[in-house]
Amino acid sequence: MVQRIVKPLLVTVCVGIAVMWVYAFGFASKESVNRIGDEAWQQYAEQRCAAAEEERIELADMRRLSDVGPDALRQRADIVDKATDTIERALDEIAAQPVADEKGQAIVPLWIADYRTYIEDRREYADALRSGNNDPFAETKVDGIPISEKVSTFAADNLMKSCAAPIDLSV
User: Fold this and answer.
1) Phi/psi at 59 (nearest 5 deg)?
2) How many CB atoms lie within 10 A of CB 5?
3) Helices 72-96 and 39-58 meet at what angle, rounded to 10?
4) How far is CA 102 from the centre of its chain?
5) Which of 1, 11, 109, 126 is 20 to 30 A distant from 163 in Cα terms?
6) Contact 145, 118 (CB under 8 A)
7) Which DSSP helix (H) or strand (E) runs through 146?
């Protein structure tokens, strides 16, 4: 009796799973929810972010904190602020560029707002360094994920690799 119920149930479940995979690979949209249609805007943003990335590379200070002296944290905070300035300037210029497609007009401001939150997190970290707190960089989480991941996912989905959130403060 049990076998008469279990066998058809297992077949039904297996067929359902197979149908799901056929739909996923054959019929479901492959386009990212973050992907916008304005390629010129994407290219501009990538170029501007790449320039900012070069500016940050020039700011790199590879000295150990113990080798810098008593004001090492203040010096590090100044570098963090200068690096954050490069991001903020790039973001301001990117935000000033109009987005041509409707989807981009809707979601680019959300990405910019997330990036501004990330910038604020960096500023707070620099302030903490100046006050003598050398804890690791902590950033805002949205729905349980770091905001830098949201920023970077949007950048990757739009072929703007240089616009990903920098990892210069990672431990």
Assistant:
1) -85, -10
2) 9
3) 160
4) 22
5) 126
6) no
7) strand 145-146
Q: Is the distance from CB of 87 to CB of 162 less than 8 angstroms?
A: no
Alpha carbons 35 and 27: distance in angstroms, whole number: 19
Give the whole-angstrom CA distance, residue 17 versus residue 45.
41
| Interaxial angle between packed helices 72-96 and 102-130, expressed in degrees from 0 to 180 and rounded to the nearest 10 | 170
Task: Please give the model's pTM, rounded to 2 decimal places.
Answer: 0.81
> What is the rounded distance in angstroms from the CA atom of residue 151 to the CA atom of residue 112?
8
In the chain, what are the domain boundaries? Answer: 1-30, 39-163
Say which residues have a Cβ less than 8 Å from residue 73's Cβ, sequence separation at least 6.
65, 129, 130, 132, 134
Q: Quote the tokens at residue 31.
A: 């386009």
Count other C-beta atoms under 10 Å from residue 59's C-beta: 14
How do residues 78-120 score in pLDDT, each as one tens digit?
999 999 999 999 999 999 999 999 999 999 999 999 999 999 9
